[in-house]
Design goal:
By secondary structure, the chain is an alpha+beta fold. It is built from 11 helices and 9 strands.
């Protein structure tokens, strides 16, 4: 009888309440299930937390992740036209680290940093796509913080296909790389990034669009990123045309090439909205108490 109380839906509701509550205890989660059942004329469940904890371990994680992504994507693409920017649906991308409990299983999958003494906390990296209009998570990936193929752009490459025509991607300068810009441009998805620190803009070159605003050709780098296969990198074009512009001392890169339709001051103003994904991560870690991820 106790097992039937904690169906997947009831268990998920109790788990969400547990995560969001200040108490964050399993005992309180079970007590809330009891109150809800009694208020609906159902028999009271035991306050023993064992059945709930076992039911939580049985939650279908893969299906839950799929449901989250499909719901976030659907809301993103169903947002009101008035919430679009020049008809484009803005997506924010960023990564953040997260600590995990020090268990052998977590250390195996999410090893602590090599410069830490033994007994430190395992550390994970999270990369997410968040809709600016609806604040929903479109997709995300969780991986180890260090090691080959665990960098932020490597995780981003795994969610890249969640972006669709009609989206506009905003991200920090770390994403301002030839392969990312080229792949998204091929999919018809424009981007807006600050120029990477390793690149320098020379506004004397290229096709001038205005003061500190020009079109310039970027050559494909010799070295491929670790997240691309040799063949996929070879298939990229050797040259791509991008737009570089400077506003208040900051150089930006975009594939929105029409300066009359997309003036540089408006683009720079839009880019300030990227900070909202930083605030979202801060809220998740601080206000929701999830700086330490537990499964």
């Amino acid at each position: 009888m106790l097992t039937s109380v904690f169906s997947s839906l009831i268990t998920l509701q109790a788990f969400i309440f547990q995560v969001l509550s200040d108490d964050s205890s399993s005992k309180l989660a079970v007590a809330c299930v009891l109150v809800d059942r009694v208020s609906h004329g159902q028999s009271a469940n035991s306050i023993n937390t064992g059945p709930y904890c076992k039911a939580r371990q049985r939650l279908p994680l893969t299906q839950m992740i799929q449901a989250e992504a499909s719901t976030g994507t659907r809301l993103h693409h169903q947002c009101a036209i008035a919430w679009l920017w020049h008809g484009l649906n803005v997506v924010l991308a960023d990564g953040t680290p997260a600590l995990m409990p020090d268990t052998p299983k977590n250390q195996a999958v999410f090893p602590q940093q090599s410069n830490q003494k033994p007994g430190g906390f395992p550390i994970a990296r999270l990369v997410a796509l968040i809709s600016l209009a609806t604040a929903t998570i479109i997709d995300y990936r969780l991986g180890a913080y260090q090691g080959k193929g665990t960098g932020e752009t490597s995780l981003f490459s795994q969610v890249l296909n969640a972006l669709l025509t009609g989206d506009l991607l905003l991200a920090d300068r770390y994403y301002c790389a030839f392969p990312i810009i080229t792949l998204l441009n091929t999919k018809g998805i424009p981007v807006l990034f600050p120029l990477h620190a390793n690149k320098k803009a020379d506004f004397r070159q290229g096709r001038k669009l205005g003061a500190k605003d020009h079109l310039i050709e970027w050559q494909k780098p010799q070295r491929k990123p670790v997240w691309m296969t040799t063949q996929d990198y070879a298939d990229l074009p050797e040259v791509i045309t991008v737009r570089e512009f400077k506003v208040k001392g900051v150089v930006y890169v975009t594939t929105l090439l029409n300066a009359k339709q997309f003036c540089k001051q408006e683009l720079a103003s839009l880019y300030k909205e990227r900070w909202k994904i930083e605030l979202d991560f801060f809220a998740i870690k601080t206000h929701m108490g999830m700086e330490m991820l537990r499964f």
